[in-house]
Amino acid sequence: MKTTIAVAKGDGIGPEIMASVLRIFEAANVQLGYEYVEMGKSYFDAGHSTGMTAAAKETIERLGLLFKGPMETPKGKGVKSINVTARKVWNTYANQRDFRSLNGVDTVFSKAGIPINLTIIRENIEDTYGGIEHLLTNDVAVGRRIITRAGSAQVIRYAFEMAKRKGYTKLACGHKANIMKLTDGLFLETFYEIAKDYPEIESSDIIVDDLCMKLVSRPETFQAIVLTNLQGDIVSDLCAGLVGGLGFAPSANIGDNISIFEAVHGTAPDIAGRGIANPTALLLSGILMLRYLGLTTAAANIENALLYTLEQGIHTGDFGDKATASVNTEAFADTIISNL
Amino acid sequence: MKTTIAVAKGDGIGPEIMASVLRIFEAANVQLGYEYVEMGKSYFDAGHSTGMTAAAKETIERLGLLFKGPMETPKGKGVKSINVTARKVWNTYANQRDFRSLNGVDTVFSKAGIPINLTIIRENIEDTYGGIEHLLTNDVAVGRRIITRAGSAQVIRYAFEMAKRKGYTKLACGHKANIMKLTDGLFLETFYEIAKDYPEIESSDIIVDDLCMKLVSRPETFQAIVLTNLQGDIVSDLCAGLVGGLGFAPSANIGDNISIFEAVHGTAPDIAGRGIANPTALLLSGILMLRYLGLTTAAANIENALLYTLEQGIHTGDFGDKATASVNTEAFADTIISNL
Ligand SMILES: CC(C)[C@H](C(=O)O)[C@@H](O)C(=O)O
Ligand SMILES: CC(C)[C@H](C(=O)O)[C@@H](O)C(=O)O
């Protein structure tokens, strides 16, 4: 059986990095079919308020899985990011980002010999991402954050399942329930409620500011952390910084019916079309997707080839603190393919 | 003229670190008088809901300046941290924390030769710290964040003034106005409004998740950052982690009538009374206070002695990643005094 997935190339550097990744998939004999969908900034500009055509939406819902490149956020008051809209439309309630030190990608932590291997699971729909705000007067703005037991439960359960699947021994809940006693309190209460179903995973909680302090000093002590939406957003990027930046961080948005795998970095309009972009984050997201689809052999094969390529010092222009590229996008993909 | 300030020793290790710091002040011939006030967990337990007696409140309001040790947060639903209450009672709207690499305090960044010298200014009253939350049902919690133009303006103006005073060339505004368009939008708008009065300071803004990513990879590129309350709380602790932890981070809560200088680490009940606690954060807060009071010579003198002591490798038990203490609290203070 061959699974078919929806593919949205994305804006800016999206099409070129997507082409590289799918070329690597093909070389690795990945058994997947693709249906390309119309989604991105230009579709928004053409009048589709969600950034996708009706046909794209129908295709994605039929196939249940979207692999997407980065998309530009349309400008303007009241306009939402296409990425955020997509998460909401399909209730992809869990955002998973895996952060791992990569040999060949130099960071302060890799130089200090501190290995990082941790996963952030972020609630992806609620909190201030509901966008419920109003101006009481011209000088007073009020925003609302809403946390529900059901919304918390689904992402927390996903986090425990993921921890189990990955063989993690512990899962922490990050929160600010000492200040937001009812909202984050509900999230935290739900965490310990669900933890009872997973006695094999050691559960603990940590206040988010303390968490950030520890992440920048002892990141190796963490395995998996689940958080509410905005705190999870902040902590995810912090962790991306630990391993070299968004160019090295895969991302999955998991829902019950539809899941989205995407690179979360920007569209880099300044270098778009020049064939020099770094496809690593999208490739890592693709590897996560292959595992999700049960294509574990292909996933491992591609992952090893990627890791080996990076270790060899082959890289595009935005790697860690190295200013110079050794290769362009296609040559990078070629090396990965030759290392398969 | 001799200024008199209010002093609250704090809970746990508070009294012993305060004693060390005031002994150093005395040796440095600091011209200050002290009035000790009754404030802390035991006063809360004795029925004072704000954690201080009426006499303490009166004294602090008369003197206008409080130097305080850490205080334990009373347990219980609906009970607020004494520190947070104090900030609110006296409208100390700006929280300033200076983060600086200290020779002798090893961190991942110091080992990589990355010098850190930056200040976080955090709005200290508004945002979700208003504590306005309710349960809509048992399963739905709603919290409110309120941002006002006046509240934003006072902290932002303080940040620009501080930047000027310190000779900084730039100030950034951290925010999440791409999601919280009205609330953080108001803060951001106010930032650029006030920036017009400070053409000599380069102003810019950065989305808070991106900020955290950059802080853990290129912290040396920042000088001063102003943020709303919760984001500022998170970013402050992240920065504390960069320089060795809360044991090395001074904190000032600035208001128009009353200001509070405090150590923001915990009360460490496990080691309280054993004479081994690290007084560095409280001493750094004290140095910040002396500068605020215009006692700049004494401030510089004590600061140099502290820096020199740390550089010599003299330290208490919680320094960076060194597990062993070379001295206890009093011997540490003695060395600083001998280095004056
Ligand atoms: C672009 C932005 C709206 C988005 C978010 O805040 O979720 C991004 O930071 C992310 O992490 O995917
Ligand atoms: C103890 C806690 C309530 C407090 C805060 O959140 O402000 C602390 O984290 C701080 O930064 O001073």
UniProtKB/TrEMBL annotation, chains A, B:
Catalytic activity: D-threo-isocitrate + NADP(+) = 2-oxoglutarate + CO2 + NADPH
Protein name: Isocitrate dehydrogenase [NADP]
Biological process terms in GO annotation: glyoxylate cycle; isocitrate metabolic process; tricarboxylic acid cycle
Keywords associated with the record: Glyoxylate bypass, Magnesium, Manganese, Metal-binding, NADP, Oxidoreductase, Tricarboxylic acid cycle
Subunit structure: Homodimer.
Family named by the database record: Belongs to the isocitrate and isopropylmalate dehydrogenases family.
The protein's enzyme class: oxidoreductase
Entry keyword Transmembrane: no
EC number: 1.1.1.42
Cofactor needs: Mg(2+); Mn(2+)
Thylakoid listed as a keyword: no
Domain Isopropylmalate dehydrogenase-like: 4-336
Gene Ontology MF annotations: isocitrate dehydrogenase (NAD+) activity; isocitrate dehydrogenase (NADP+) activity; metal ion binding
Function: Catalyzes the oxidative decarboxylation of isocitrate to 2-oxoglutarate and carbon dioxide with the concomitant reduction of NADP(+).
